[in-house]
Design goal:
This protein is mostly beta strands and 132 residues long. Helices cover 0% and strands 61% of the residues. It is globular.
Length: 132
């Protein structure tokens, strides 16, 4: 089995070759992917995403700073992916946005909190927090 990455002048070529575990297979899979970084739109417009205190027992503070305006939502999910709460979010470019979530009634454990952009229907950033 082999994996190779070649970078030249902003273009990345990645290819893998796979053979059977016992090297008895006569067929080998090989594929190439070419990625040009200049053609990728930057979707991660969040410059700062802080959760505190983490772990927490009652209030979770969220601090966000974005490089562009974002109309979206904050979604909290448990480890099974069940949505616990969804909050509307409106971030102005280069302005700090603060939110507080009351987690005092949450069951103790780990949760994921995501920031989503409604206009692009995508998750921008996800972090984990612990409820004590």
């Amino acid at each position: 089995m082999g994996s190779h990455i070649i970078c030249a002048e902003g273009i990345t070529v990645v290819y893998d070759s796979l053979t059977s575990r016992w090297d008895t297979c006569t067929n080998t899979f090989c594929d190439s992917v070419v990625i040009n970084p200049s053609s990728i739109n930057r979707i991660n417009a969040i410059a700062e995403f802080d959760l505190f205190p983490n772990p927490t027992s009652d209030k979770l503070n969220i601090k966000l700073l974005a490089e562009k305006n974002i109309e979206g939502q904050i979604i909290v999910r448990d480890l099974l992916g069940k949505v616990v709460v969804t909050l509307p979010l409106n971030i102005q470019a280069n302005e700090t946005t603060r939110k507080t979530i009351d987690v005092s009634n949450y069951v103790g454990g780990a949760y994921f909190i995501s920031v989503g952009d409604n206009n692009k229907n995508q998750t921008i950033r996800t972090m984990r927090f612990i409820k004590k």
